[in-house]
Amino acid sequence: RQPLCGRRVGALLHRPVVTAAEGPQTAQQRGPRQPAPRPGPRKHDGRGRGSLRNMTRAAPRPTVRRIYEPAGPDDGVRVLVDRLWPRGLSKADAHVDEWPKSLTPSTELRRWYHAAEGDAYEEFRRRYEEELAGTEAVEALDRLRALAREGPLTLLTAAREPGRSHAAVLVDLLTG
Predict the structure, then answer these.
(1) Distance CA 145, CA 77 (A)
(2) What value, to the nearest 5°, has the Cα angle with vertex 66 and ends 62 and 72?
(3) 42-100 pLDDT, tens per residue?
(4) What is the C-alpha separation between 119 and 138, in angstroms, rounded?
(5) Which residues on adjacent β-strands are paired with residue 154?
(6) I want to staple 99 with a disulfide (CB 3.0 to 4.6 A). Which of 71, 80, 135, 157 is the partner?
(7) Distance between terminal CA atoms of the chain?
């Protein structure tokens, strides 16, 4: 056997290659190899995490944090969603960008929820969503949706359990 060098390599390059669409070609006639085309961006279709169709349009989900936690670099716009200013916290230390009081539960609803015995969260949620149907609250919700589309949005609350508070209801309304 002879080593693959000199004229022998050149002979391999000119060996015909047959494809169904183009017929016989040599490597020189085909030209340099082209990389395979890359698929376009995946899109999310709204049918769960695994489904894809409109993913590039989906706004990131707003986060909920306690206002007593220090501000983080990923917070984006920080919006206080409590009617009363949190105790023991100065406005300079809170780093609040907006405070839409029209989105907060009414004083009556807030007092009822704190005085209720047992698990009253679902009833609180229903009553709070009724309150948010008002014109002023709808405008404030639209403003928050616009902020969420522009970038990260953090809803701040003094509630001890933010996941079972009005802030969780607002996140559901903003994303649903």
Answers:
(1) 12
(2) 65
(3) 444 444 444 444 444 556 789 999 999 999 999 999 999 999 999 999 998 999 999 99
(4) 28
(5) 63, 78
(6) 80
(7) 72
150 Cβ contact partners less than 8 Å away, ≥ 6 residues apart: 77
52: nearest Cα among 39, 43, 60: 43
Q: Decide the pairing of beta strands 77-80 and 23-25.
A: unpaired
Among candidate residues 168, 164, 136, the one with its CA nearest the CA of residue 155: 168
Residue 128 to residue 105: CA distance in whole angstroms? 6
Within 14-106, residue ranges assigned H as helices are 27-30, 91-94
In angstroms, the CA 58 to CA 44 distance is 8
Nearby residues of 56 by Cβ (< 8 Å), 6 or more positions away? 41, 43, 44
**Residues 6 or more apart whose Cβ sits within 8 Å of residue 113:** 105, 120, 124
- The alpha helices in the chain, defined as continuous H runs, are 7-13, 27-30, 91-94, 107-115, 121-131, 135-150, 166-175
> 91-136, pLDDT tens digit by residue?
989 999 999 999 999 999 999 998 988 889 999 999 999 999 988 9
* Calpha distance 51→43 (Å, rounded): 8
